[in-house]
């Protein structure tokens, strides 16, 4: 895989919206909010540098999940917002799409990504605080340090740890080519719930459930394979289904204006089949006995929830051109520690 460059991309790669494109026209690129250079194919993900060097797939995925948990815990101790923690996870995953885990200690890279994310998100934390909590969290529950090691500025090994993190931060910047653009799925989830659910208790409950799904999604490679809007749309669908809330399917209209209300998947012009893939990957994370998993076995899935004649149901790939239908031409309204990786 070649390293992404910060030079300008053509319109089709960046998913720039062009005029006169309808929901049913799948020749139109999906509206993406991130550089597509940071979205990898399934084949590329199965051939990461780590796996090429011999790291088994299950071991790599375990590191990805454990690191997300590690960053969440460290960020919680540092009292940084969820967005800062999610950006750090994205930096980490992007880095290891281009570098091998066998060459760079994941917890050290995670600490550097968290430090860098705090700068990018303007939730500034002192490096000594990053060092203290990342070391303390990664050494918890060990034989010598049941509560974690306290590494202060006057402690032996402090400056070695400091130099290691700073070196890794420079390495992360080099590998990412200083492209620190990150789109947050949380804001897209909020846009969906606010537009479709109003501001009552249902809206709050579904938003919270969707937020939890997004938090869990960072334990996988979803965010280097799918756009933030696709992940947010999948989380929105899953949370609504979890609460047995029926979402608009594109067949209802506003009483006052007569305009058709966009279906839940039309809001961001997402591809239904990609949204369904995201849902399946999320559900694979949970045990079959889990309550959330059992709920999704009942009722209509992503594809089944769409009216039979809707063009989006037939759109399996972005490159298949479909004929425009009357419905498309109508006015629309948007209502861990080192030991944790063993």
Automatic annotation (TrEMBL):
The keyword 4Fe-4S does not apply. Residues 1-35, 306-342 are annotated as: Disordered. CDD domains: CYCLIN_SpCG1C_ScCTK2-like_rpt2. One of its GO terms (biological process) is regulation of transcription by RNA polymerase II. Belongs to the cyclin family. The keyword Cytoplasm does not apply. InterPro entries: Cyclin-like_dom, Cyclin-like_sf, Cyclin/Ssn8, Cyclin_N. Keywords: Cyclin. GO terms for molecular function: cyclin-dependent protein serine/threonine kinase regulator activity. It comes from the Eukaryota. Pfam families: Cyclin_N. This is Cyclin-T1-5. Residues 69-174, 187-284 form the Cyclin-like domain. SUPFAM superfamilies: Cyclin-like. Signal peptide: none annotated. SMART domains: CYCLIN.
